[in-house]
Design a protein that fits this description.
Layout: H1 2-11, E1 38-43, E2 51-54, E3 60-63, E4 67-70, H2 76-88, E5 97-113, E6 119-123, H3 129-135, E7 148-154, E8 157-163, H4 165-169, E9 183-186
Parallel strand pairs: 5-9
Antiparallel strand pairs: 1-2, 1-5, 3-4, 5-6, 7-8, 7-9
Length: 192
């Protein structure tokens, strides 16, 4: 009789039904630069002008020839255009500039619950929930992987999603792209 009761209990504790959740990458509005962010600038055929920069607390970088350049609140494409325009103004003829963000230190994602290293992570462009949990050391032994919950602030309201992370990892469900400010909670399996 005990075995039947235990079997019924375990059968009733399966994976929760996933929420309807957004499965597209984050829009460009989430990619503006702020203090602490780090990016790489490449100026084609001008290696001395290429390098990595961290946005200062004043929202600026110090760029060769140009001096202080304000980048706070700009997208990587806007920074490219700003540097290109300023370099073309007396320094280089038709420069080709590219900007690649290395770290959005100002934009964070929180992962806690049954993961190996709970805490706050720096957001990266295109980051998925699988990548965020991997950066948190992966799931703990008692993690209820398909019951992972995400809380997201959007347009002044809080939205909650139940994400089937194990199914995503197996290719059985659509991906979930993390946004800055997301809080990811991995609950414990109720039957362990």
């Amino acid at each position: 009789m005990r075995i039947l009761a235990l079997a019924l209990l375990v059968a009733g504790c399966g994976d929760p039904k996933p929420s309807k959740y957004p499965s597209e990458p984050v829009s460009i509005q989430d990619f503006t630069l702020a203090a602490g962010d780090k990016f790489e600038v490449r100026v084609y055929k001008h290696e001395k002008l290429s390098g990595e920069y961290r946005v200062s607390s004043e929202g600026t970088i110090s760029f060769p020839y140009l001096g202080v350049v304000k980048v706070i609140g700009m997208s990587p494409q806007q920074v490219e255009q700003t540097i290109k325009t300023q370099l073309a103004d007396g320094y280089l003829v038709d420069p080709y500039v590219s900007v690649l963000v290395k770290e959005y230190a100002s934009k964070k994602v929180t992962v806690f619950g049954f993961v190996q290293k709970p805490g706050t992570l720096s957001f990266a462009e295109g980051m998925t929930i699988v990548e965020a949990i991997s950066q948190a050391g992966g799931f703990g032994a008692r993690a209820h992987q398909n019951a992972t919950r995400v809380t997201r602030e959007s347009d002044g309201e809080s939205k909650n999603y139940t994400i089937p992370v194990e199914s995503i990892g197996q290719g059985k469900a659509d991906n979930f792209y993390v946004r800055p400010g997301d809080v990811i909670y991995v609950p414990k399996k109720p039957w362990l």
